[in-house]
Write a structure and sequence with these properties.
Blueprint: H1 3-15, H2 17-31, H3 36-39, H4 42-49, H5 54-61, E1 67-72, H6 87-97, E2 101-107, H7 113-116, H8 125-140, E3 147-151, H9 157-166, E4 173-175, H10 187-198, H11 204-214, H12 226-237, H13 252-267, H14 277-280, H15 283-295, H16 302-312, H17 319-326, H18 343-349, H19 351-361, E5 382-387, E6 393-398, E7 422-427, E8 430-435, E9 445-453, H20 456-464, E10 472-476, H21 481-484, H22 493-501, E11 506-510, E12 523-528, E13 545-549, E14 554-557, H23 561-566, H24 574-580, H25 590-595
Parallel strand pairs: 1-2, 1-3, 3-4, 9-10, 10-11, 11-12
Antiparallel strand pairs: 5-6, 7-8, 8-12, 9-13, 13-14
Helix pairs in contact: 6-13, 8-9, 9-16, 10-11, 10-22, 12-15
Amino acid sequence: MNKTLIEVTARIQARSAATRERYLAQVAQLAGRKRGVERMGCANVAHAVAAMPANDKLRIVAERAPHIGVVTAYNDMLSAHQPYEGYPALIRAEAARQGATVQVAGGVPAMCDGVTQGLPGMELSLFSRDTIAMGTAIALSHDVFDAALLLGICDKIVPGLLIGALHFGHLPCVFVPAGPMSSGLSNNEKAKVRELYAQGKVGREELLKAESAAYHGAGTCTFYGTANSNQMLLEAMGLHLPGAAFVHPHDSLREALSREAVRQVLRIAPRADYTPIGRLVDERVIVNAMVALLATGGSTNHLIHWVAVARAAGILIDWSDFSELSGVVPLLSRVYPNGSADVNQFQAAGGPGFVIRELLGAGLMHEEVLTVVGPSLQAYGRVPTLQGEASDQLVWQDLPADSGDESVVRTAAVPFNASGGLKLLQGNLGRAVIKVSAVPEDRHVIEAPARIFTDQEAMQTAFKAGELDRDVIVIVRFQGPQANGMPELHKLTPPLAVLQGKGFKVALVTDGRMSGASGKVPAAIHVSPEALAGGPLAKLRDGDLVRLDAISGELTALVPAAEWEARELATIATAQALENGAGLGRELFAGMRRNVRSAEEGAISWL
């Protein structure tokens, strides 16, 4: 086992001792109760089963059959979640074959960040995670279930479902994915058209044609953003069936895996090999997720989300833990925006199974941990396939020793980089993170004058006017959780890429988010504390020299110390502050904006 991995895990265990002990005591207390229908009053039971077929009522009440609750994030606004429409019927049919019963316990909201990018709805995106967690809790609060299946894939949905499920830590839970869409227009070609549009060289018609060719069918978007990073992390945590993440929605293997998920959750239900999610997700499993994120250059959103996930299980992690692990975890995959491949090519080259096998072999993951298929992560280094005369027998097989495509996935012996894709930055501007796996090495250190904005639109206007055609560090502040829900700022990427392509030294510094699509421009994001909370980003002025050094981990305003100390904090304009909280449902989230913790604390609104 790698020394740093052991040390970071031990530090997290020590830091979390009291909170984890309290959490596990609650799990044990809830697990020790009688089954739901046996401890509930007759009226409660009657309400719970009122709409079920008579034979299912008999199974639950008289035969004491296992009862599965399904929490689904189905809607057909999200291409990734559209396939879930038929899952309840499939799950019920398979459960009936196993002598069990099923109820859809509840649905949770699921918004598409691709639809809301750059629009007011994006200001609800981060808070939708905790809303989903609360929706999961409401679904499971009926408290009649022996186990749960969780149906969700995309950005805030998986973390929300997981946070909610961990608050019912006594329940065995299995996540059931639905897979990525088939490959369309390549991500590189899509990015080129976006840059041309930003320069005014192509029009809306050409841009829409390109975007529609990229996002064209059912399934998850094919770049390695937050949604697909979610799937990688769930594999590394042992919460999927092994290899379930990136099988196409309409592949026959997908249905076989979904049926097996029903069978598997029944195996780990209380009367079998009881594996409650609260015991499964321990400090070592959280570290395994962190390692998987770093080894694949995954979404920076998870430096927020997995802090919150860990906290839901009584485990305390911070960005220093990620940064220390990043120093020893090699980068084993390049998937767009860290390379040109999409997730289908990643899957074909070996996918999550190849990465997990290599990390285990290098002593960079904890192997002897609980998973939904047993007490070892080794199973997740294999891949599922259908065999037999009718191609209906689900089996797992070993992967080849070598990568299927070394431009996409590599062994731990010859990685793309010796260290992971994320770095902690700190200095007199606060603490931030940067995703360096896609940034050219000659751009890891940028020193340039600051140009300050308080929204994406003002930056776009300045870009179009030619005001940014120079070495510049663009500052976009008052974009943190308290200010406006910390939206993703993807509208900044094309113009910054254009400026970098012209040869200028450019970077972005913001207390907002960029997620898994931050790309090749150096971006110090999630700056904490945020400007609205009195963070030092509010001290910056136009023209201040700023240094972003991803090698030394520095984020500093090069202003004399006495002057910096004496500066007053800038404030957000009253009109903008009012606009951030009004219209299109944003008023409903005022309480979350008031109570939310910092990005490094997971932007949690429920503590």
